[in-house]
Amino acid sequence: MIILSAGIAALLFGVDLLLKQYVEENMDCGEEKEAVKGKVILRKVYNKGFMLHALERYPWLVRGSAAFLGAVLFIYDVLLSGKKGRRVEKAGTAIFSAGAYSNIFDRLVRGKVIDYIGFKSKNDFLSRLTVNLADLCIVAGLAVMTLGKLLTGAGPRSKGA
To answer: Is the overall model pTM greater than 0.85, yes or no?
Structure first.
């Protein structure tokens, strides 16, 4: 399970970095291209802060926090990988970690995260949101991790779980 989880994380991490690099090299900032029948918009947006550009005026805080949280996540990943069972939680953690590490990489290496997926919506707020595959992995990973925790807590606990 450790190799499978690491493989999933590496694949998602790599795909997101490749997509970010493609957008960086082939689109202008703010440029938009319609995709998926006009419902999905490819657009290049830089985010120097956290979600919704939070704390972007404090790049030192964003970078430092990202590095610290990345180290904590790595320790959690290592500790979880040593536990028996918990397959759903481990899968969710692999997906979450791939997204988190990709955005942390961007913050530490580029000084900003490249977002590139937007959605057409009648709601102005939703239409302005731009995310990347890493963000989607973080949300999906958290959902799977939560499901794994609930499933682990729902049944009888064994000494090896």
So the answer is: yes
CA-wise closest residue to 56 among 65, 43, 68, 69: 65
134 part of a folded domain? yes
In a domain, residue 147? The reply is yes
Asked if residue 28 is part of any domain, the answer here is: yes
3 state SS of 23 = helix
Q: Do the beta carbons of residue 53 and residue 101 sit within 8 Å? A: no
| pLDDT single digits (tens) 9-22 | 999 999 999 999 99
The phi and psi torsions of 91 (rounded to 5 degrees) equal -65, -45
Number of helices (H) and strands (E), helices first, in the chain?
Answer: 5, 4
CA distances from 131 to 40, 51, 68, 78 (A): 11, 9, 23, 28
Q: Which letter, b or e, does each residue of 45-58 get, where b requires 16 or more Cβ atoms within 10 Å of its Cβ? A: bbbbbbeeeeeeee
Q: Is residue 159 part of a domain?
A: no
Q: Report the domain count for the chain.
A: 1
